């Protein structure tokens, strides 16, 4: 058995009491204290364990064939495409595999990278180092993408809530209605690559 140090993520507990000055939204924080998790080496696993844990080549090919067919369907039908759960057609996670979405994703990534690199150049030329400002520039450029991801996540949550029993569904929908939307950062104040 191998011992590996892995970074861990810790989520703030949902039910904790908040002071009036504390933000009520949940968030992810990085645990600064490393933790050790045992990881079994593949040589220490039985053939049955390996077979049960890992996908075979045939299973991978079957999955790829299925999602390729769904992506083709998505590209052919474009805006008219609707998931068909009864027939096993679900596009979740495949959105970026279409030509248009792939191009859009590449443009979004390039815009974010260029904004950060441009701001680093500006800061270097001005003889300053402000990582927080670079972070603000990145957040401003990626805000539309994060808003779209939040909207998709909220839609998924609404669909999940609709499958719950009525008494639970009502409470969850009320809680969801109170939830704040993602903050839209304003463009940073001083000269940046966004001008």
| Strand residue percentage | 5-15%
Rg computed from alpha carbons, rounded to a whole number of angstroms: 23 Å
The total of beta strands comes to: 4
Distance between the termini: 54 Å
Shape: extended
Number of helices: 5
User: Which residues sit in consecutive blocks of at least 5 with pLDDT less than 50?
Assistant: 1-22
Q: Which H/E pattern describes the elements? A: EEEEHHHHH
Helical residue percent?
40-55%
- For the biggest β-sheet, the strand order reads 1-4
Based on helices, strands and strand pairing, what is the structural class?
mainly alpha
Nearest-integer average pLDDT: 77
Major sheet attributes: 2 strands, antiparallel
- The multimeric state of the shown protein is single chain
Q: Would you write up a description of this structure?
A:
The chain is mainly alpha-helical and 195 residues long. Helices cover 51% and strands 8% of the residues. The protein has five helices and four strands; from the N terminus they run ββββααααα. It has helices at residues 47-53, 57-77, 99-126, 131-161, 166-178; strands at residues 2-6, 9-11, 28-30, 35-39. The strands form two sheets. It has a two-stranded antiparallel sheet with strand order 1-4. Strands 2-3 form a two-stranded antiparallel sheet. Helix 3 (99-126) runs antiparallel to helix 4. The model is unreliable at 1-22 (pLDDT under 50).
């Amino acid at each position: 058995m191998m011992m590996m140090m892995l970074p861990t993520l810790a989520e703030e507990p949902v039910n904790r009491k908040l002071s009036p000055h504390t933000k009520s939204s949940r968030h992810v924080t990085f645990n600064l204290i490393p933790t050790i998790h045992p990881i079994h080496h593949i040589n220490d696993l039985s053939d049955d364990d390996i077979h049960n844990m890992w996908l075979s080549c045939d299973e991978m090919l079957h999955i790829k064939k299925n999602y390729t067919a769904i992506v083709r369907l998505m590209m052919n039908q474009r805006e008219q495409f609707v998931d068909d759960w009864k027939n096993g057609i679900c596009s979740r996670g495949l959105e970026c595999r279409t030509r248009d979405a792939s191009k859009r994703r590449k443009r979004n990534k390039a815009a974010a990278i260029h904004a950060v690199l441009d701001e680093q150049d500006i800061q270097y030329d001005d003889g300053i180092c402000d990582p927080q400002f670079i972070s603000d520039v990145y957040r401003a450029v990626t805000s539309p993408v994060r808003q779209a991801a939040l909207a998709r996540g909220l839609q998924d949550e609404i669909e999940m809530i609709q499958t719950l029993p009525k008494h639970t569904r009502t409470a969850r929908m009320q809680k969801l209605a109170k939830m704040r939307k993602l903050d839209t950062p304003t463009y940073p104040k001083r000269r940046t690559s966004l001008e």
